[in-house]
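Hi, here's the filled form for the chain we discussed.

Project: internal
Contact: R.S.
Residues: 151
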Amino acid sequence: MRVIEAVISGSVFAISGNILAGIVFTAYPEILVSASSVSACICFITAFSVVVQSKTRTKALQKLLLLASVFSFLLPLSAVIYSGCFFAEDLKQGILFTDTHFSGLAIRGGVITFIVGITGFLLGVVFLISGLLMDRLSQLIYAQSQPSKYK
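And the returned structure, exactly as it came back:
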């Protein structure tokens, strides 16, 4: 049963790592496929080993949620790298640029970074709070209803 949990959670974690690497390496399509597949394999192996080595299911889920929050907090950094790569590619072409072109590049990079930053921050907060509260959720005492006197 633990192996099935490891495969499922490893796949989910590998998809999030693949998205993170995909955003970073989108500017370089010649290495995009290989870098994304390598990062997905590394994330899958990491999540699989975390689940298999954990003592309980809640500890495994807690560790994976904390790792997912780290990946979510890294999303804005990947958006900055993505925007910078496209900005550098446009500058490398050697075309005469106007102020309008520069401002368009800056606005495009800023908007992409802002949207991904807000999304990554909100996802990171949700994953972090869920991961930190996971241990307490397993320790809840379930209250039973009192038997009725009027049966």
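Let me know if anything looks off before we file it.
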